[in-house]
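Summary for the steering committee. One of the milestones for this cycle was to obtain a three-dimensional model of the protein with thiamine diphosphate bound, which we needed before selecting residues for the alanine scan. The sequence and ligand used are listed below.
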Amino acid sequence: MTTKTLNIVIGGEAGQGLVTIGELLAKTLVECGYEIVVTQSYQSRVRGGHNTFTIRTSNAGLAAPQETIDLLIVMNEETVRLHREELSKNGLVVTDSSIKIDAIPCLGVPYGELTSRRHENVAALGVATFLLGLDKTVPAQVLERKFGKKGAEVMAENRKALDTAYQWTSDKLAQARPEALDFLKLPETKRQSPRLILNGNEALALGALSAGVKFCSFYPMTPATSIAVTINQYAAAMGVVVEQAEDEIAAINMAIGAAFAGAPSLVTTSGGGFALMTEGISLAGMTETPVVVMLGQRPGPATGLPTRTEQGDLELVLYAGHGDFPRAILAPGSVEECFHLAGKAFELAESSQGPVFLLTDQFLADSFRAVVPFNVDELCSVQTGTDPSPAQSPYRRYALTEDGVSPRLLPGFSRHLVIADSDEHDEDGHLTEDLEVRVRMVDKRMKKYARLKNEVIPPSYLGAEDPELLLVCWGSTQGSVVEAAGALESAGRKVGVLHFAQVWPLVAQHFVEYLNRARQVVAVESNATGQFARLLERATGLQIRRQILRYDGLPITPQTILAALKI
Amino acid sequence: MTTKTLNIVIGGEAGQGLVTIGELLAKTLVECGYEIVVTQSYQSRVRGGHNTFTIRTSNAGLAAPQETIDLLIVMNEETVRLHREELSKNGLVVTDSSIKIDAIPCLGVPYGELTSRRHENVAALGVATFLLGLDKTVPAQVLERKFGKKGAEVMAENRKALDTAYQWTSDKLAQARPEALDFLKLPETKRQSPRLILNGNEALALGALSAGVKFCSFYPMTPATSIAVTINQYAAAMGVVVEQAEDEIAAINMAIGAAFAGAPSLVTTSGGGFALMTEGISLAGMTETPVVVMLGQRPGPATGLPTRTEQGDLELVLYAGHGDFPRAILAPGSVEECFHLAGKAFELAESSQGPVFLLTDQFLADSFRAVVPFNVDELCSVQTGTDPSPAQSPYRRYALTEDGVSPRLLPGFSRHLVIADSDEHDEDGHLTEDLEVRVRMVDKRMKKYARLKNEVIPPSYLGAEDPELLLVCWGSTQGSVVEAAGALESAGRKVGVLHFAQVWPLVAQHFVEYLNRARQVVAVESNATGQFARLLERATGLQIRRQILRYDGLPITPQTILAALKI
Amino acid sequence: MSTLQDFGQYETAWCPGCGNFAILQAVKKALVASGLSPHQLLFVSGIGQAAKTPHYLNANVFNGLHGRALPLATGAKLSNPALTVIVESGDGCNYGEGGNHFLAAIRRNINLTMLVHNNQVYGLTKGQASPTSQKGFVTKAQPGGVLAQPFSPLAVAVAMRAGFVARSFSGYEEHVTAMVTQAIAHQGFSLVDILHPCVSFNKLNTFTWYKERCEKLPDDYSPTDWEAAMKTAVKWGDTIPIGLIYKNEQPPYEENFPVLKKGPLAKQGVDKKALQDIFSRYL
Amino acid sequence: MSTLQDFGQYETAWCPGCGNFAILQAVKKALVASGLSPHQLLFVSGIGQAAKTPHYLNANVFNGLHGRALPLATGAKLSNPALTVIVESGDGCNYGEGGNHFLAAIRRNINLTMLVHNNQVYGLTKGQASPTSQKGFVTKAQPGGVLAQPFSPLAVAVAMRAGFVARSFSGYEEHVTAMVTQAIAHQGFSLVDILHPCVSFNKLNTFTWYKERCEKLPDDYSPTDWEAAMKTAVKWGDTIPIGLIYKNEQPPYEENFPVLKKGPLAKQGVDKKALQDIFSRYL
Ligand SMILES: Cc1ncc(C[n+]2csc(CCOP(=O)(O)OP(=O)(O)O)c2C)c(N)n1
Ligand SMILES: Cc1ncc(C[n+]2csc(CCOP(=O)(O)OP(=O)(O)O)c2C)c(N)n1
Ligand code: SF4
Ligand code: SF4
Ligand SMILES: [Mg+2]
Ligand SMILES: [Mg+2]
């Protein structure tokens, strides 16, 4: 089977409905059996500006975005101007025939003649369906699912727009440019059993729900808002309280209160909002309250670029909060991993009785992928608190134990009283000025690192046994790094990829061999200073001399890496 | 000249006036020509509990606290119970004769017979004056300066209490325990020219005033409050606006606003309050606004031990704020250095146009020392903003320059308009979504590190050329480490001390040789995990395998270090 | 059912003569009067002298961060509405650092009882101005006197039509007990601002100062008349009215969440059937 | 003296039909009416659609953090009182994230003009409830409708006896101009809460909705009568009063600082004589 990969960009102003076309086309492709990787690029405004919805698709596996464009569907002239340089050799522009474009291959569609204004995006779907050589019945079913509930008439209109545009394209190309047809036609592929289409944030939300999240507080902030909003959509069905707080400080303190009272609790935010939670994180550490924080990264400092992507908040999260206390930081590399690590985060928070962080970013948050359905029966949810029945009176919340973890009773569920304190405290939870107790309590808290280290997800390794080049990455860049490594392998180089889905704590034994074995180690990150490379150095004492860093707000692509390595 | 060093502890409940005795005695000692190091230990309450005011004094140089007690002046029985184990071989307890103490050398003073309740602390001063063999006229002058303004009668009463107690002690000891007399008698010393008695926070305040601080915002928090309060005491005379903010977030944003409008600006806080400023720090970084933050460290996490000491906020400060931007962190090792580095902080903030931090801690904040007066004529104050006259129109606040520093005009001082933005911005200060501009702006900001590195204070080195043991420390622990090193030298070991008064940025060339040369390197810090050692490792790639860490809330003493090294 | 003894007797870190002692005693009495047992109660406090109160009685306690008691209590209440949640902290904590949460709690009308020990000063940090300090009040940190107008929590609470707005004075222990008991009984957000002397740092608003001014509302005062309440709430001068100033019965916030009707969140598992349905929406 | 042209004409990032356009225009007119030149002005904003406004006119600008415009402006004003400082941001920014600063600014009575573009929704983040959203208002983030009572900035400001409290509506550009002009002229803290439609995310409080309800205060309305003002401030229903609701002349905060009488802090050097005196206190 030959494989073909195409990159389809739909571009226009905010408010022109390009996300609708994009989602319909993505669904169609997945139902036809193709893989997709969606990248959304938008500005911090509601209307106007320049946005794109990019679907990279293939009949083979796929996990990264691409920079060149094979099919550019535009809603305005500006999009052509901004992206013409990115068109691949046979790249085609699809535009309204009223927009005049010169010197590049272009298909002008007379939308106005084919359909009404409202149905132009469905018409564009029809054009794309034909160009990509897709089974026409699939987008029709997709439309049916989307608009079916709105009644037969609405559905019929949509159906008509789709068919008319499909037919028009077929007729037009038959005469005019059959070669474009071939280039854009996707190879046939097996229909797969139904897959979920999820973006990173949806996967996090579903993962949290599966894990048993019961309380979620947030203050809106791009690109994290949709995690809480998605959970809220199912709050009634799943028995969750979702609360928009008055500010981020309230959000983290609410979550701590809710967790203390027994609910597995979540806070979602971005870097600037997280900065405000710093004191609260320290409170979770001191009071040993489990709480999960999901942070959608975007470029800083300060307000920065609110709708773009970056991996710049790793050090912020690692060192947030005054004083020393244990924590864990997860960083999923794919949409599927978003789902699973959301669950892991709740587990770790409960087992270590403290804050656990999950770092995602705008790229992953908005990136739709096709995911094999999760088996509901296999999913475990978190158990909060400890059974009160064996507890002695008076119950001591911070009893000193071998591994630093004390039985955690929940207030109000027994006659035992639960005392938590942000001051340094004695085993019973009351504040103390006994400085020997202080030392014991610091040691108790730090001991919990042993448990966290036992449960660490080791980095995944892919590639040759003895690579000349080892690419190290974390979080959302995984797909691009793996694809770049594949390209290098094809060019005859021995390459390995080490991807960290958990970036703290690090257990050097898990990976130091890889670093030692490789002739050259290159860290790949979306930030300006190589924060994770620094962390690896701290954990291993090894210097990582070469870094590929991107910090213009766009995701790292395989091309970014290959260009930097001058291949 | 023989040298003698004594440790005098005054102990009792909060509210019993022990700070008054302590300050009077400290002043007396300094006027007599002795050196002092004061350590204050108190609890997070206003009355009751157990507090101490400790004066270590000597006729030779002195920079560290001591753990054993030579003279223990107690206001209650509990103090004896808590400290009797710490008494040195010839240590003496001075107490009210109504308090019965057994099995230790004790001088019971019949305060009730000698004077009235109100004057008991002055009477205690009289006793100490005699015991230490001090010139009786000196405390009399000290009292005169303190109470003189309250009228002749008040003064006469105080004077009488002093004299009566002095005489009583003289009579009593002549008969009873002359050997104690000898042990406690300080060797004669030259009167020195007058010295200032300052604690760390007072020195910071005076340093800031000298440097030209014009705006100071704060929210009360131990142990930082007294910096702002001291500045406020002189605000009218020195032309400063001091504002107690509604919360720490307001404090940092006010300071940024004031600095933008031209005032050299300061914020004072402790770890928990600083945690709330994290987002604001990022704003200072993004908008390139100079602002100085003085942080008085205390043990965390969360509320922790509010009145104790720790060096646990280094990593918090180093990584505070989302996104990457330059910063500098100073950490004075003595009261004198507090004064000078306060000035340096304002200079660096202005020259690098960004946030500069100064880390102190409760120990140093409250530690009085005798300081040679500063020469007012030699002190430089900071110049804010750039001359607007050569500026071109339209003025561009973030003009790209060789070293990343752009001319900083102040709003309202010329017809040029000054635009600052927390979003990523163009040279003119307006928000941008141009991702190439983004990259240039990140690079511009990071370039300023070169300037900061040029102005770094290299660590000070003291000791043998080729030490077998190198003690590395930062901030307030300097005195103890140097003294411990001296003791080791006397015991025949070759020891060096490397003290960092600036902990970020680090220029490895300044000190890596010292680390390489020493047979063993030991880091000494007041925190649980060795934060500075970690930072050194990051900066040099060298592992510092041995650490002496103290985190019970008390300052590191020479004894702490010697005991850890098992000498 | 409980007795005073159930709530224990602890040594405190307060200054002799402080108004906090009377408030602590009144709170215990109110708990007994409310028929609540220690384990049914959750006290949430911030940081300050007042905020130490929960350490001095038997109950579940979360002593949180300075200024953040309200959101923490809100989270706890929304996690387990069966808990009687009482927020207890100082004027600085609640109206200074925590001002934004005060506004939000009133808007939510969440069923918490908020007891503010209002000594018009920051006690624990040794005497700086608080938001309720009088204009001109001189402290070490405000050597020229306080420059801003004092915050009137009652005026703001009544203006926002908070559920239950009362003032009391530590000098009248029975009055404090009555107000706290009523506040606990009230279903919705309730505020009791309790004036009390700080003998160490507030030499202006002393016990006598309060005693001379605090005056109980007349028997015929109607706390449901908003206009009258507004006028009463801003009174602060030779007489300072104490009592229940305003009351407004609205369903408490937590009743808006059907899921909370099923009991505490901690006891609600994951409904796998519902989860499967949700997954299928993404097919 | 300035003209409309001095304040420039920029492309905006707002949606066609948004109320922000009219407010921008009115602000420019008010600046001209106030006789202010661009360099005498400092606009401080937070983050949101409204907070972009200062980018669209010529002046000194500090576009700060979400919710933190007021303290930043306070610092700038206390650093250089000669600047006319105008805070411009949305309802979410000022009453949500920044609620505590709103209370503090009123208490200080600092001489700032605070213009709140109140569209009763979070616009820039695509339509979540704001503190002023109506109860029951349905959004993607509040699928069951808003559960809390809306925040009434005017009620709180009047209850706290703020210096200048006004409401306007973007549909009446001249009215906005008049209110902003008066607010700038007022010496002390002034609030103008400007209702405006968000065509993208608030389908409830539309242009027509406001137009049908907003009603100018009668000519004989006296803004110095606090009781009347309080009643007016809480009116929100079939009619919504617009105009100057309350006014209270008090010396502005910055006048409390004698040092500011000597001009901007940036120009005040270090008095070495005074410094020497201070040092000698520690001898
Ligand atoms: C974030 C933070 N800022 C500041 C402090 C310091 N602090 C502790 S208590 C307090 C003031 C307490 O005043 P109030 O709430 O009125 O209580 P009181 O002591 O008067 O009862 C302050 C400022 C802190 N603990 N945390
Ligand atoms: C600390 C922080 N939290 C959240 C955000 C995200 N954010 C940006 S604008 C906004 C809401 C804006 O609403 P509003 O102030 O009403 O302005 P509008 O857009 O409606 O004019 C939010 C929540 C942020 N930038 N910073
Ligand atoms: S300082 Fe004031 S409030 Fe605190 S315990 Fe003492 S008297 Fe009470
Ligand atoms: S989203 Fe609303 S407030 Fe923002 S520009 Fe559009 S209409 Fe205006
Ligand atoms: Mg108080
Ligand atoms: Mg809004």
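Key point for the committee: The two ends of chain A are 27 Å apart (CA to CA).
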